[in-house]
Amino acid sequence: MNSYFKSIPRTKIVVAFLAAALVVAAVAYAGSYHGLPHLSWANETNPGEAYNPLPGIGPDTIPDIVSRVSPAVVRIDTTEQSSGSGNLDPFFNDPFFRQFFGNQNLMPSQPRVSRGLGSGFIVSSDGYILTNEHVINGADAIEVTLAGQDKAYPARKVGSDKDLDLAVLKIDAGAELPTVPLGNSDSIRVGDWVIAIGNPYGLDHTVTVGVISAKGRPMTVQDRQYKNLLQTDASINPGNSGGPLLNLNGEVVGINTAINAQAQGIGFAIPSSTVKSVFDDLVNKGGVAHPWLGVYLQSVTNEIAQYYGLKDLSGALIAQVVEGGPAAKAGLQRGDVITGYNGSNVSNPNNLIDLVNGTQVGSQVEINFVRQGNSKSVIATIEAKN
To answer: Taking every annotated instance into account, which residue ranges of this chain make up the domain PDZ (predicted)?
Structure first.
């Protein structure tokens, strides 16, 4: 052995080899994770400060928002009564079945009671509450329970709109109530953090956090066609419907409305901009006057473009004109291809529908169209949809 090593005590040599081995192992371990972000649960520049996993958000911001807003979030219970005793009732009421038993009352019909659960939030201190129309649809009785209270207040429906899936309720609590403000959903961006509060599966005031995953999502749920939903990965489940989706200012940017039954972590909310545009009508008129042109539309295909001599596939083909509707009164016909609406180009049927929906009922609009290869225009008066 080299004389240098002979002069070093054996214990120090062992310690040195162990230390070297640990260094090599540490380098190998770090190298196996090359390319992954370096995370720490402590702030490296300020060792005494807790690590914040949400950049730009203070560690107390979300709890503060929840604490401030939760008193304005309510639980909505509904009751619906219907006649009939159960699954056997149709058989006993069927004439073919009853002929074997005469007209005796084999199974007296008993009323059935259906119960529903949803969420909502208070928008004015005198007790006006926003929720989804599908939460209270068909209800014979509606009760609202405030946060931290056992007492349920009877609620009356002030106004609702099935197409928009919005409803306004009113309770009389005998005192001023906490409220939550409506924010600007138009300014929210994909990737912005949002907070959902509601009563999923009856678990009162459950809080979930996520981001805006997409904007302007169309979606069909049963017989409802939504046009412009916010998509979020903040968990939304049955019972969350009607509850608020909040930005980090504690403002409502959406009303939690629907989930994708085939996927986890995909929920949808009605933008607050939609609510703002119709709230006064819901309160003062009990409903919303939907602008209506009175046509059924289809997309322009290559075959249609060639047949009608169109230069491209833009526009909306009129498949049917409703008799007595605004389009019929203006002289539009089946087979006309609408290419312009009140100064805006029409790219497809959905584009035209959006333009009509943004028109005030009673307004006169210029409609440009192509008929048998010739460009024409008419003036139509937009009416309210019955």
So the answer is: 284-348
